[in-house]
Design goal:
By secondary structure, the protein is α/β, with parallel strands linked by helices. Helix content is about 30%, strand content about 20%.
Length: about 425
C-alpha cells in the first residue's frame, strides 16, 4: 500500500511527489496516462523548431520558493532572461499590450473613441459591480475595449458565450485608472512598472519548456508509472483501490475532475457539480514564416481570424530556427483542412487534452463541493485541474508546495 498516489505527472504531480519525498514520505506513486511526464508543458523538436505543444509557457513567479525550486534543478544560467514584448492586433494596427495603456499607438480617430469609452466605464462612474462576465468587463474597461478586444478575444479563447462565464476569476484584470490612461495618451508612453502581468520572464536556453520538466522529474521517474490512465477507483472505507491494481491511503488528483468522474463510479451526490467543471481544448499549429521583429507573442481578437494568439518562437527559444511561428486556436474553430497563416499551411498540429479551466457560472462552488465531498475519504485536488483554477505552471508548483506544507506542518527538508 502506498501512502500517497498522485494522478497525473504534469508540473503539479511531479512537484507533489518531490516535496512529499523531501518531507520524508517515501511511499509515493504517480500515475500518468501519457508515455512521458509533463502534461501541458511538453515540447517537440520539429524540423529545427522548438514547439511547446501545450501552448505558450514562460517561467516567472512572484514566489521565491519556486525560483529556488526550479533553479536548484535547472540553474539560472541555463535560461535566457527576457523583457516581455507582447502585442495586440486591433483591426489593421498592432499595438503594445495592454490595450488601455497604449491607445496612443492607434490612429487619432480611434484614440478619441477609445478614450471617451474608457472615461465612461461603469467603475469610474461609481456604478455598482455587475455579476456576469460581459457586464463586468464593460463596467471595468468601457464598451469600446470590450467590443473590439476583450469580448471577441475571450470568446475565441474560451469557446463559450460570455453569458455563461462567472466574474470571480476577473481579479486578474487590474482597475483601469482613467487619469493614467489619459496621461499615457498625452505623453505617448506607458509605465511598464504597472504592467498587469509579468514584465520579464525566463525561457530555457535549450530544449523548450519541457527541459524544466526533465530537470525536476529526473529523480522522480522511479515513482512514475507511464501509460497508466486511471479508469477505475473506489474507496474501501480505509484506502483507495485504483485500476484494481494499486492501493493507497491518500490520493491527490491533478487532472480534470470531470475526466475522473466515470472512474469514480459517477456518484450522484456531485453530479450537478461535475457538470460545472468544464475546460476547453486548443490546437497548436507550427508554421514556417520569416519575421523581422522582436515580438514574443501577439493577441488576435478579430473573429474573422481563426486563431487567437501567435508565438514567434525564434525570439524566445534561441535553439530554434528563426522562422518558426506557432498559433493557438480553439478546437471549436479549428479546421485542419483549411488551416493557414499568411498563405502557408501548418507543418504540424497538436491538440491538447485540456487547455484552460472554463470559469462558467457556479464553477467555484462546484469545485469546493467536490473537494469537500472527497476530503473525508482522503482524496484531494491540487493544481490547475485539481483546484479547477486558471493557474500558470509556477502557481501550480506553488500550490503543490503549499499542499505538502499543510500535510507536514511546514517541515520540508532540502
Amino acid at each position: 500500500m502506498f501512502d500517497y498516489l498522485i494522478i497525473g505527472a504534469g508540473v503539479t504531480g511531479i512537484t507533489l511527489s518531490k516535496f512529499l519525498r523531501k518531507a520524508g514520505i517515501d511511499s509515493v506513486l504517480v500515475l500518468e496516462k501519457e508515455d512521458r511526464p509533463g502534461g501541458l508543458c511538453r515540447t517537440e523538436m520539429i524540423n529545427g523548431h522548438t514547439l511547446d505543444i501545450g501552448g505558450g509557457h514562460f517561467f516567472h513567479t512572484k514566489h521565491q520558493e519556486i525560483f529556488d525550486y526550479i533553479f536548484s534543478f535547472l540553474p539560472e544560467n541555463e535560461f535566457n532572461y527576457f523583457e516581455r514584448v507582447s502585442k495586440i492586433r486591433i483591426g489593421d494596427v498592432t499595438i503594445d499590450y495592454p490595450i488601455e495603456s497604449n491607445i496612443w499607438q492607434m490612429p487619432i480617430d480611434d484614440q478619441i473613441e477609445y478614450l471617451i469609452s474608457v472615461v465612461r466605464n461603469g467603475e469610474a462612474l461609481g456604478m455598482g459591480e455587475p455579476h456576469n462576465y460581459e457586464e463586468w468587463i464593460r463596467w471595468k474597461l468601457g464598451n469600446k475595449i470590450c467590443d473590439e478586444y476583450m469580448i471577441p478575444y475571450n470568446e475565441k479563447l474560451w469557446g463559450v458565450s460570455p453569458s455563461e462565464m462567472d466574474v470571480d476569476w476577473l481579479y486578474k484584470i487590474p482597475r483601469v485608472n482613467v487619469d493614467e490612461v489619459l496621461r499615457y495618451c498625452l505623453e505617448r508612453k506607458q509605465d511598464v512598472t504597472k504592467f498587469p502581468a509579468h514584465i520579464h520572464f525566463y525561457y530555457p536556453k535549450k530544449g523548450g519548456f519541457e527541459s524544466i520538466i526533465h530537470a525536476i522529474a529526473r529523480d522522480e521517474m522511479v515513482n512514475i508509472r507511464l501509460n497508466e490512465a486511471v479508469t477505475k477507483m473506489f474507496h474501501t472505507g480505509i484506502s483507495w483501490i485504483i485500476n484494481d491494481t494499486y492501493e493507497a491511503r491518500n490520493v491527490i488528483n491533478t487532472t480534470p475532475w470531470n475526466d475522473l468522474y466515470e472512474a469514480l463510479g459517477k456518484p450522484q451526490e456531485i453530479e450537478k457539480d461535475i457538470s460545472k467543471i468544464r475546460y476547453n481544448r486548443i490546437v497548436v499549429s507550427l508554421y514556417e514564416h520569416a519575421y523581422e521583429h522582436d515580438w514574443h507573442w501577439r493577441y488576435v481578437p478579430d473573429n474573422a481570424v481563426v486563431h487567437h494568439r501567435e508565438f514567434y518562437i525564434g525570439n524566445f527559444a534561441k535553439d530554434s530556427r528563426a522562422d518558426g511561428i506557432y498559433l493557438e486556436t480553439g478546437t471549436k474553430r479549428f479546421d485542419e483542412n483549411t488551416a493557414e497563416f499568411e498563405g502557408k499551411r501548418p507543418i504540424a498540429n497538436y491538440e491538447t487534452d485540456a487547455a484552460y479551466p472554463i470559469p462558467v457560472v457556479g464553477h467555484t462552488n462546484a469545485i469546493h463541493n467536490i473537494l469537500d465531498y472527497y476530503e473525508p475519504m482522503h482524496l484531494y485536488g491540487c493544481g490547475r485541474w485539481g483546484q479547477h483554477e486558471y493557474q500558470n505552471a509556477d502557481v501550480s508548483m506553488y500550490e503543490a508546495l503549499k499542499f505538502v506544507k499543510r500535510l507536514t506542518g511546514g517541515e520540508i527538508n532540502g
